[in-house]
Design goal:
The chain is an alpha+beta fold. Helices cover 28% and strands 26% of the residues. The two termini are 21 Å apart.
Length: 121
Amino acid sequence: MSKPAEYIDGFVAAVPAAQQAAYIEHARRAAEVFREYGALELTECWGDDVPDGEVTSFPMAVKKQPDEVVVLSWIRWPSKAVRDAAMPTLMEDPRLDPQQNPMPFDGKRMIFGGFAVVLAE
């Protein structure tokens, strides 16, 4: 029997630079919840060399403001089936409620999507 392919949820957001510590704490708290529901790992990356583009770019995609930094994040799941089974319950978990764990950025400008892993070396 073959192992199901891993699945990735990817995110790109613009976060106020002054909110880095709050963002990391927000992500740390959310990571605990996601792992409880089956996620293998969560990775958060603070933009360090993310140039503006002429046609398209990460900054343009999230409508980055001068005081913001682009953040790239992903959640690694053992399979799409595990992710799909977890999502409805996970989204109802009170620990992810914005009142308890507020997002220190404009979530309306966040880009996200699910991806099937086709190569991992």
